[in-house]
User: What shape does this take?
Amino acid sequence: MKIFEAKFENGNWENPLPDLPNKDILAFAFGAPEFIENSKPFDDLTSKYPGIAIMGCSTSGEILNSQISDKSVVVALTTFDTAEFKVVAEAVADSQNAAEVGTKLAKKLNSETLKGISVLSDGLSINGTELSNGINSNVDKSVVVSGGLAADGKDFNKTWVLVDAKPRTGYVCAVGFYGDNVKLSCGSEGGWQPFGPERAVTKSKDNVLFELDSRPALELYKEYLGERANGLPATALLFPLQITSTDPFVRTILSVDEKDQSMTFAGDIPEGSTARLMRSSEESLIEGAETAAQQTNTSIENQSLTLAISCVGRRLVMGENCEEEIEATKDVLGQKNTQIGFYSYGELAPTGFAPCGLHNQTMTLTTITES
Assistant: This one.
């Protein structure tokens, strides 16, 4: 396994693209939202490396090793010694067909030798809970599934994923990894703490929340935000909700509807569960990121690749100190590891004994190694 890094910024590549052996190349490429209007970096890759497979999406900040950038495209070009891979994509009609999309992706990728799947999804038109359920139900439990939702800075307007090396809205792409020598391992942690009273989810449907304690959900949420309510949905990233049905999980808002006073989330909000506001500090978020790196349980003796997907809400809280969380993960992962990723609208990962599910406000890491 060999990995080569590249960065496109200010209209040019930071360094010339390397000459690589004439073999299959998998690239991960994460870029600023405005590259939907400028496909030059992706065109350059397909021109330089005919037949290259590219996985990528828009971001709220691009991650490469210990640095965060904006208005750039970061790239990790990867070749494998024996492992194989396959990239597929599916269009999203609306958030209601997310499970169907997940099922189609899984069936395209499934094989007896499948070891892991990495998923990148449009960040605004998908129910991440149903997407992961569709994938999980169509692959063996031993298959590691992880990924994230594309982002659009703080605008929540339009996100894209790469399909055939072109930025496109309304799609989900996935790559499957095959062979006995490839291994994927995950870690995912938040660092947020609940506060304030618990509220009952008295009316919801899938990922849309209508009522808390029989009151309009958006009205009640705005009371907590105060003056910050004028900045919705972006300001909601500072105060996500802890949802508890069986095990607690975190949800952040994708959009609000003033007409029916509802809030749409990236994943399901079960009716009958409870909701509670959350907040965090720089220190606890950095500790959470470090814990996520430790959870990968990866002893890295050879070159390896880590996909780092962190929620944009974490970046808003940490501000200029945000690089401290990716420095913390890089320190744990070591010098032989290349870390590439993005700030997202949601993270997909398994946790504990649970299969892949949607998370918000976490640092989620997937490390790919080849023995």
Q: What stands out?
A: The longest strand covers residues 193-205. The chain has a mean pLDDT of 94. The CA atoms of residues 285 and 355 lie 24 Å apart. The domain at 193-279 is CATH 2.40.30 (Elongation Factor Tu (Ef-tu); domain 3).
